[in-house]
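SECTION: protein entry
WANTED: fold as tokens:
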Amino acid sequence: MASNIEEPLFIKSIEKGFIVLELFKTAPSPLRLSQISTLTGFGLSATQRLLFTLEKLGYLNKNLLTKRYTPGLKALSIGFSYDRLGMIKTVSSPILERLSENLKEDIYLLGFDGSNTINIINIPREKNHVKPGKPFNIAFSAGGRSILSYLPGMDAVGLIFASPRNAQTTKTVTDPKLIIGKVEEAYSKGFSVVDGEHDLDIISIGSAILDMAGAPIAAIELVAPRKNLKWMKQRERIGTQLETAAREITKSLTHQ
């Protein structure tokens, strides 16, 4: 869906190209022209021109037999550029590696794209490697709730109501009012704990990373089996460690 940005320097046609590319984040399979037109709300003619341009530039591939589109290698190269040059990844990596070594659990760096959280780094202790770019539901991840706790109230509420709220376990909190309560608790503590909401045997703890103005830009999240985090005091101690690490990253970013 197109934004409502109305500024002289804003180029709507470029926005449309990115809207098309972003469809593939959640597409279950390659997409046809008609599907892309329907999903974007653009007319068939406009969609065809966008697809032709993106294909010629290498950001989309078209299967000549099925007429379906998939992301091209140029799209992957943008992600590689972020992985190589992204400041928050560069600053965070040594701090997260130290955390992982000390806590012996899976550690994630989740970026905030304005509406959701995206995996930037995953330091697994087992074989639970998560690929960069994987989205996490902002209302149901510990890192996401910690990010929400630093957003203006109405912005946080809007994102909570916009997020899919499907119960994954008997402990999943789906009532928006209760989620808001969890977000408020995260703000008061400096970290969020999600207990068995995705998997009854998994607990996650997250703390937000802020920019110079105090706005959330990312979060650190630790994910561990319940057997490793049985006691509340243990979770609180780890939450405090994550908050300290998040503040260290914030401080380092301001000096770059």
Notes: The chain has a mean pLDDT of 91. Residues 86-254 form a domain with the Beta-Lactamase fold (CATH 3.30.450.40). The radius of gyration is 20 Å. The chain is about 45% helix and 20% strand.
